[in-house]
Design goal:
By secondary structure, the chain is of the alpha+beta class. It is built from nine helices and six strands; from the N terminus they run αααααββββαββααα. The chain has a six-stranded antiparallel beta sheet.
Length: 209
């Protein structure tokens, strides 16, 4: 319950914005019964206005509450997975994406360094219980199309929201402290061999956010 309250407080401005936009989107539809019955009568529409505002704002509030509950359930699912030993052993920083957005759900991800490279670990559809993750190395690929080609063809990288590699973890692998770290160390070695340029990360901000 405390976590649910924290989400409401943390996202209060985005929720207020979402509630306002939802109210405005719903409002025109609440006039349909009046229009069907009386036509485009300004007097009838004016008389209907207070009730329409009440109905649309109430329905919008239900939409916002549903969004908060959905965000909360998503964060619970993500925490359940990130608490597994294979993630804990990484000792990465937990971060939240989607803050302040009214169209994107809140989602947590891990960010940390292995060797010379920072890696972002995303969970892919955690609500589906498939234990899929996306590994995104923070490297500069804009000027190196050959690097992208090799990573795609040889290492199974794909361009979705990010340029990364998706893998599925079994329950045994989730509980193996060394499994994911081993994958990241191997990937770090391959990136070094390919002379991939690491993106710069402000370590002070990372540690103090």
């Amino acid at each position: 319950m405390n976590d649910l309250i924290k989400i409401v407080v943390f996202e209060r401005f985005a929720l207020l914005k979402g509630w306002t936009i939802s109210t405005l989107l719903i409002l025109p539809f609440t006039f349909l019964p009046t229009i069907i019955k009386y036509g485009f009568s300004l007097e009838a529409l004016k008389f209907r206005l207070p009730d329409s505002i009440l109905y649309s704002s109430g329905f919008a509030l239900i939409v916002v509450i549903a969004a908060v509950i959905n965000n909360y359930n998503n964060l619970v699912d993500r925490k359940r997975l990130f608490d597994k030993p294979t993630f804990k052993e990484l000792d990465f920083y937990g971060r939240i994406d989607g803050v302040g957005s009214i169209i994107k759900d809140l989602e947590t991800f891990l960010l940390g360094k292995i060797g010379n490279y920072y890696f972002r670990i995303n969970l892919v559809e955690p609500e589906s219980n498939t234990n899929r993750i996306e590994i995104i190395p923070l490297i500069d690929t804009k000027e190196d199309k050959e690097l992208m080609r090799i990573l795609k063809n040889k290492f199974g990288f794909r361009q979705y929201w990010f340029f990364g590699k998706e893998i599925k973890l079994s329950e045994e692998q989730l509980n193996d402290k060394k499994y994911l770290k081993g994958i990241l160390r191997e990937l770090e070695l391959n990136l070094n061999k390919l002379n991939a340029k690491p993106l710069q990360v402000n370590e002070f901000n990372l540690e103090n956010e």
